[in-house]
């Protein structure tokens, strides 16, 4: 595509209920939306950083700065480019993967819309809908957790993930198992433990969880391997998997037997497909994680999750799990426990300009 300009917006989207993890509570999703303006039309992307660097070292104001100071100018300098060139052009700049992913998605969307081709088809989707799991935050107490999980099960979600942290692990998991029996259940620690907690984490073995996600810190690859050898519950990595190389290394070391793929965390949907491919080759199941995406990233995640190696339900829930008002005209809905893979050109969703404007708290445009 022939890039003419890139527009960035910081959005504030209120959440329908607070979302609490081991690293903090969010009540408003702060996110950056990217519009790539090209000679053949616009494309949209989303930079999934959060307000503070708690899940990852990336955060919104850092993303806002690095995008305008370095990454967007590098793309505008090239001018005419294919989506497959974006990662290479941005490669000299270390990390900032969520920013790179959002920029790449906007250019990919513009290119696919111009070609009249859906993102799912481009990425290699093999199904037209994907099973939908939900990530449930830490609640006031186990009774409130059971109530929240019950609501999501009633809505039709086919897999429940609960967030855990030290002191809110075994009893919370036991409460959900006791209340709902043999539902597909997994836990996510968001790096809140150390190897010294291995005995506590081993107590979770009795709940027959699908997996435990990211118990230890991002760079604790060897410790994850040590822990995995002590648990019956499969260890899944999220934060640690920042690239296809990191995924290959983790598998080689026995640090994970399942991988959560998030395009933002790994620098884009193309790198996400490479991780999918290498895991599939290795017989390692993957699933599509989420970052409280708007309708833009949610559409892209549904397309990614439709690839054949995504054999576990992902955190690709309906838009209304987080938002009363999305920025797309047809937000992703839950239908019979599944979400549909959009079939329109590019992302296959249209931006609602009024909703976008209402959510915008900062805007910048860089031109060629
Ligand atoms: O660890 O998967 C995570 C949200 C923000 C940051 C990290 C995580 C999450 C979630 C929510 O679990 C996933 C979703 O978007 O539904
Ligand atoms: Mg996670």
UniProtKB/TrEMBL annotation:
Keywords: Lyase, Magnesium, Metal-binding. It holds the Pfam family MR_MLE_N. InterPro entries: Enolase-like_C_sf, Enolase-like_N, Enolase_C-like, Mandelate_racemase_C, Mandelate_racemase_N_dom, OSBS/NAAAR. One of its GO terms (molecular function) is metal ion binding. Its cofactor is a divalent metal cation. One of its GO terms (biological process) is menaquinone biosynthetic process. Its EC number is 4.2.1.113. SMART domains: MR_MLE. Residues 142-234 form the Mandelate racemase/muconate lactonizing enzyme C-terminal domain. SUPFAM superfamilies: Enolase C-terminal domain-like, Enolase N-terminal domain-like. This is o-succinylbenzoate synthase. It comes from Microbacterium aurum.
């Amino acid at each position: 595509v022939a890039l003419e300009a890139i527009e960035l917006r910081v959005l504030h989207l209120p959440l329908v209920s607070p979302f609490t993890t081991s690293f903090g509570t969010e009540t408003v999703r702060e996110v950056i939306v990217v519009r790539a303006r090209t000679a053949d039309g616009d494309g949209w992307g989303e930079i999934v950083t959060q307000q503070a660097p708690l899940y990852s070292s990336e955060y919104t104001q850092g993303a806002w700065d690095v995008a305008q100071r370095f990454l967007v100018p590098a793309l505008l300098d090239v001018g005419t480019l294919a989506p497959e060139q974006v990662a290479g052009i941005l490669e000299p700049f270390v990390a900032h993967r969520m920013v790179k992913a959002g920029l790449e998605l906007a250019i990919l969307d513009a290119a696919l819309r111009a070609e009249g081709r859906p993102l799912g088809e481009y990425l290699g989707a093999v199904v037209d809908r994907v099973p939908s799991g939900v990530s449930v935050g830490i609640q006031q107490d186990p009774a409130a957790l059971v109530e929240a999980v019950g609501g999501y099960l009633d809505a039709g979600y086919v897999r429940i993930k609960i967030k855990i942290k030290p002191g809110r692990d075994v009893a919370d998991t036991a409460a959900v198992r006791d209340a709902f029996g043999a539902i597909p259940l997994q836990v996510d620690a968001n790096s809140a433990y150390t190897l010294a907690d291995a005995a506590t984490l081993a107590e979770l073995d009795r709940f027959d969880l699908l997996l435990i996600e990211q118990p230890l810190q991002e760079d604790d690859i060897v410790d994850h391997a040590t822990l995995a050898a002590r648990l019956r519950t499969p260890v899944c990595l999220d934060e640690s998997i920042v690239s296809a190389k990191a995924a290959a290394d983790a598998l080689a070391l026995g640090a994970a037997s399942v991988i959560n793929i998030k395009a933002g965390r790994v620098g884009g949907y193309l790198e996400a497909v490479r991780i999918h491919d290498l895991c599939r080759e290795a017989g390692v199941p993957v699933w599509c994680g989420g970052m409280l995406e708007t309708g833009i990233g949610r559409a892209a995640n549904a397309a990614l999750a439709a690839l054949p190696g995504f054999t576990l339900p992902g955190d690709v829930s309906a838009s209304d799990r987080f938002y009363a008002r999305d920025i797309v005209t047809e937000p992703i809905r839950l239908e019979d426990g599944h979400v549909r893979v959009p079939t329109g050109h590019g992302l296959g969703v249209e931006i609602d300009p009024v909703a976008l404007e209402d959510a915008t708290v900062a805007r910048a445009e860089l031109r060629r």
